Every structure is written in structure tokens, then in C-alpha cells.
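Exercise: predict the fold of this chain.
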Amino acid sequence: MLTTAVLALGGALAGAIAMLFGHGVWTRIFERWSAPRLARARTALYDAPRYGSRKAVLAGLHTLPRRLQVRVLSELARSPEGPDRDAITGIARDAGLLRNAERMAHSRWWWRRLRGARHLTVFGADEILVLSLLRDPHVAVRVQAAELAANHPTPAVINALLDGLDDPAAGHRFAVQDALLRLGPIAVPPLASCLERGTGTALAGALAVAEGMAEPAFSRAAIRLTDNGDPIVRERAVALIGAIGELDGAEAVTRRLEDAVAAVRTAAARALGFMKHWPAAPAIAGLLRDRSWEVRHAAGLALRDLGSPGLLLLRRSREDDNLFAADMARQVLDLPGTAGART
């Protein structure tokens, strides 16, 4: 019986090795067969848009299998000298690639929907299909749909992306954040509204996106959120105020230097350093005695960023009776680039 099991296992391993070897051989043969065809098609596709010949583009595509048609058209879409998105969509439609991608995007199998979404990211898709893919039950499809949505900045799509900030799957939340950042200024008004009404995970994600944009339109909501009951929200709200850099939020950030959560105190010290808010220097210097190394380190760097007032407090802290404060002050003053620190 043991011998039978060993033989069966050996046979399975041999079969797997044979399949892998066979796949490698087939891939190499296919690449050698397709190389000259790809070269001719690329030449036709890259030259034709320059002269406005859609017929030549389609003729170049039709010499290739469908998966290579998709590859070459994707290359054309990424090329700085290639046609615009509307032209790519038209070429894909005329070649039948757009319809095929849409058909895959409606498949019952998630991996086909994923493949369809990837193709549509190149070819373009209508708003209804984008919204459907953003609500797909499989996270991999939703992640790809977020990338697709970044090319379709309609109000409905942007709102659907904002709804995705509350997705239980972290991968999709990060993809949504990236898509909103790519959308840029057009996403600012709806994102500001989200900060005013958002809660929970969505609010924390919206703050992370807002920090990447650092628009003054977010200031009012950020100041209010520094008093939120969720420490993650407080931390990100403080970081957002620091990124924006307007002194209207300095008082709210200064209050967070006494926050019960170390991460919030750290963010507050960093933000005040970024803002160059020197009146907060004494309060920041008090954090050199904090029990958290991260807080002490952030406070020391913030004091250095404040210039002369901060450096003066760092020098005084070198002689502090508190070993935490004295050690951190010496570390910061010894850092390269701390101008005027040594006296």
C-alpha cells in the first residue's frame, strides 16, 4: 500500500514537471512565432495614428491573435506619441476587442470579469459598467475596477469610489485611495463633503487621500475631526492640517500634544514642525520627556524644524534632569544639518 502511494505521488510529480516543461516549450515556440508579426503590427499601429489611418491600424491588428492584439493596443495606449483615449476606444471597438472585453466583464466567473476589467482599463468603458465592476463580489475585480474608474471621472463614479473607502477588503480600499489621488482636483469637492459626513473606516481613508492632496478646502473638516473619538481619525486629521500648512488649525493641533494616544501626539508634533508654528515650541519641548520614543523623536525633530526657538529649547534640554529629554535633545542636536546646534 505504501509502495502504491509512493508510485502515485511520483507519477503526479512527474506529470506536473512534464506540464511545466511543456508549457515552457510552448511559450517559447509561440513567442518566436509571434515576434515578427508583433514587430510588423507595432510599426503599423505606431505610424498609422500619426497619419490618421484607422484602416491601417485595424489591418495591423488583424494579423495577430486576439491576446496579442490586446497587448499591442495596450502598448499604443501607454505611448506618449500614441492616440488619445477616444481613439483607442474607437480602434478597440472596430477590432471587436471592446465588445469581447465587455462580454468578459459580465461573465459568471470572476477571473474572466477580472480579465475583462483589465482590458477595459485600456479600452475604456461606459459609466454603468464601471459602477457594476466597482460593486463586484470579488475583491480582485473591485481592485481592477478602481484603476479603471480613475479614467472615468464622472460624479457617480467618484461617489462610488468614495463608498469604496469603507470596503472591508484592505486591498480595495488602497486601490480606491490611489484612484482618488490620480483623479486630482476634480475629486476635491466630493472628498471634502465625505470628510464632513463620513464615519469609521471610510473617514480614515478619506483623510489619508486628503493628506495626499493637501487642499485648503479640507481645513474646516480636519480641524473638527481633531476631536473625533477614533484615535486613527484624530491622527490623520492632525497630519492633514500639517500637510495643508495653514495656521488656522495650529491651535487644534497644539491641543493634540496632550492626547492620550501616543500616535496622535507624534502626529501633532510633526505637524507643528511642518507648519513652523514656533509659539508651540514650549509645549513640544515638554514631549521630550514622553514615555514613547516615537513621540520624543518627533518632538525633537519638530523643535529643530522650528529654527532658533526650537534649537534654544533643545540646547537647554541637554542638561535636563529627565534622562529621556536629555538623551533625545543630544541625539537631535548631533544630527547632520542641525545648523547652529553646537555652541
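Check your answer against the key: Residues 269 and 299 are 5 Å apart (CA to CA).
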